[in-house]
Amino acid sequence: MEILDRLKLLETENARLRKENQALREQLRLLLQQIERSQVKKDSHNSHNPPSQDKSNPPRTKSRREKSNRKPGGQKGHKGHHLKMSDTPDKVIDLKSHYCNACGNDLQDVPADLLSKRQVIELPPIRPIYEEYRQYGCTCPKCGNNQVADYPAGVNAPIQYGSSVESYLAYFSVYQYVPYQRLKHLFFHTFNLPISEGSIQNLLQRASLKAGVVYEHIREQLKKAAYLGGDETGAKVNSERWWIWVWQNALNTYLHASDNRGSATIEACFPEGFANATIGSDRWAAQLKTAAANHQLCMAHLERDLIFLEESEKHPWATHFKKLLKDALGLRAQADQQQYPFQKGEKSAWRLEDRLNRLLARPIVKDRYPQTTKFQRSMIRYRNYLFPFLYDLRIPPDNNGSERAIRNIKVKQKISGQFKTGQHDFCVLRSVIDTLIKRNLDVFTYLSKIMALQAS
What we know:
Blueprint: H1 2-38, E1 137-139, E2 146-148, H2 163-175, H3 180-190, H4 197-210, H5 212-223, E3 227-237, E4 240-248, E5 253-258, H6 263-269, E6 274-281, H7 285-289, E7 292-297, H8 299-312, H9 316-338, H10 347-361, H11 370-381, H12 400-416, H13 423-438, H14 443-453
Parallel strand pairs: 3-6, 6-7
Antiparallel strand pairs: 1-2, 3-4, 4-5
Helix pairs in contact: 2-4, 2-14, 4-13, 5-13, 8-9, 9-10
């Protein structure tokens, strides 16, 4: 009996130790998995972080672009650009020899033939033009009324800067990102025009008020659009965290500065939503909550998220899903080439949709792959926002247009550091400038027209 009791005790102890060993092994596996994941850092190639925040050590020198079959340099069919000579030069300098280098004979009266010509481009000195308006009055001999001539609209002070100065300031500050202090020096040394930083700020504010009509027109155009992309980026305003929002499509760009990153900003700018539009975005909740006809998730953002999942949790589901997105982009390229979208139920598109459904239904162990599981749940929730771009060629598969629009904000802040004031003025003027660029209209010419037509 004692031996049997001893055996039972040893069996119990062995079972307890085996169970404890199994638990410790599981803990060790989880710890090793966490260590492995922590070694995978998020940067621009596997997350939404911009390249400027990459902190690779040593710095990355290898391009992340996939290798193509194209040769380096200009591609076949690309038109080169070079300086062209003017047919009507402003100044002509004739070069004729007065004597013969060989014998010294006088050649001044000998007819000469034109052999060749060369042109040099110079810029003239720039001087401001002072336009003086003189107001006269007289007494009507018939009724005795003291008649005084009116000053033109916008001429409000004894001396002031004109609309052309506003155009140049808007062009240099908002389009070329020149900070206020450098603008002051630029105008003094280049245009021979003294101007203070306070005057620059006031004139930019005046320019944005004049551009307000165009800015509102852009907003109205986007409200009626069939597609627009939305995004937002952080911005410093007097050392406080603000956000610059953008809504844009192929023809319009609308920027708005706000201290709120939530739905309140969208409701303030577009309270009625976008009844006719599909909105492209990067899965930011506020963008996806926007009332719209449909939504389109950015394929580029999803691909980077999947790269992170591949590198950190290494579940094959992420690789299969990334391949699915790549195949979807391949189908879109076919549709673009044929200039005809896929139809619902069409064979190629149906196969892709079926693969998507099977991937979304595939079970993933949540405890072992929490981030992959979370991403899968997100894709299930937004399943109908993945492939609208296959069925409507007006919808791009990415949100790169919005990324390009907000990149201007980052460049401005890289140069100037932050907005102390004028963030709203910048958004108004930059919206107009980007819209002019998209419509292939000369930026400075049309800025000048807007400043001249809108009376102060």
